[in-house]
Each structure stands twice: as structure tokens, then as C-alpha cells.
User: Fold this.
Amino acid sequence: MKKLVVLSGAGISAESGIRTFRESGGLWEEHDVLDVATPMAWAKDPEMVLRFYNERRKQLLECEPNNGHTGLAALEKYFDVQIITQNVDDLHERAGSSKVLHLHGELKMARSTADPMMRYEVDGWELKMGEVCEKGSQLRPDIVWFGEAVPAMEEAMHLASTADIFVVVGTSLNVYPAAGLIEYAPAKASLWLIDPNDVEIPINRHVEVIKEKAGKGLDILTRKLL
Ligand code: OAD
Assistant:
């Protein structure tokens, strides 16, 4: 089977009711990134940070995968599909995709502030102050914040370099290092981008653009690939 590598972002979950970050009405319009998604924010006001991610987690419990997620899961019949997602939701997994690498962490997981390897599934939607790991340290959301390293990046670069087909869907390609992954696709790979809006592509190669929302865009892509 050909290897189809996908880089997904917030836009693929938009039709499930999850807000994107940088569009009008996006999350970063209402919240200052520096207040909720940085190590400094955690040091200054951990309760506010927990509240922000608790809200996201609570909303996620009410959301279902959409045609974009299920469209990608269905492609596993024809391709060896590897998803690399910037999303912290679990909608790719719930739609049935079997290989999902989370670059920016996972909402449903918490981790120890003393040892990043100590990870725990959050029970329900709420992570509270006072919830600690076995070593007695406070748990924090298992999210990669701005200013932190992206531990899954090396694996992601390797995966991108094995692509026969590389598909970017639902991301504004604003955030590095994730946005740079397309550069690792081999020269022979075909490159695709699905987004209803214009996205500046940081690479000087031909990219086939499908200017549609994720659900419809993946339908079109599937027809073109098969
Ligand atoms: P953005 O909010 O920057 O971009 C969302 C993209 O989705 C835009 O290009 C939209 O045009 C597109 N979009 C909107 N609706 C769509 C739909 N129905 N179908 C397909 N595409 C649609 O979100 P990301 O690029 O994912 O990181 O943001 C990257 C990172 O920045 C996030 O992982 C997050 C954020 O800060 C952290 O919090 C660490």
C-alpha cells in the first residue's frame, strides 16, 4: 500500500463544533495565548490554565467526529494512512484512524509536573489543583505549550519523509515546527492541501489545493486518488 501521511489542524475538527484558533471567533481572539498556553502562564496562574483546558475537555465530550475524520479513517482501506495531528482532541481516533501521532499533546491526558513520562488519563473533564502523581507533584495538562519542545517532532519528520502522498488539512500553517513538516515529504510525493480559506504554503513545490471544508475536501481527494 502507498503511504499517505496527513498533517491535520484545528480546521478538521471545526465541523464537529470545536473552535479553531486564528480565524475570526477563534480561541486566540478570546484568550491571550500567553495567559493560558505557556509555561509562564502555568507558573503565574495554574488555576486559570486548568480552567481553560477543562473547558476544552468538557466541550470535547459533547463533540463527535465529522466527515473529515471519518473520510480519513476510510482511506485506510486503500492506503497506509499515518495521521500527524496538531489537534489535542481525540476525534481522529474516535473516527477509527489507527495511526495518530499527536504533536501538541492530548486533552484527555494529564502529566506530572515533575516527570513528563508520568502520564495519566483525566477522569471525566476536570483536572484540579491538588491532583498529583505518585511522586506527589501537581498534574498539568499533557499539552505542548508555546515555548516548549515538541517531543514527537523527530518521529513526525521521519514519518513525513516516508510519504508517497502528503495531505495537509485544516491548518493555517502558522505554528512551527509543525508547519515545516511538509518540507520533509520526498520530492516524488504528491502534495495536497484542503482548506476552505487561502493558506500560505511554506514550500516552493507544486501543491494541489482543494479549497473546501475538510468533509467535502476529503471526499474530493479520495475520488482523485482512487
Ligand atoms: P488555526 O486556527 O491556526 O487554523 C485553522 C485552519 O483551519 C485555517 O486555515 C482555517 O481556514 C481552516 N478551517 C476552518 N474551518 C475548516 C473546515 N471546516 N475544514 C477544513 N479547514 C478549516 O489552527 P491550527 O493551524 O491547527 O497549538 O493551529 C496550530 C496550533 O496553534 C494549534 O495546534 C494550537 C494553536 O495555538 C497549541 O496550542 C500548542
Summary: The chain is about 30% helix and 20% strand. Residues 74 and 131 are 39 Å apart (CA to CA). The mean pLDDT is 97.
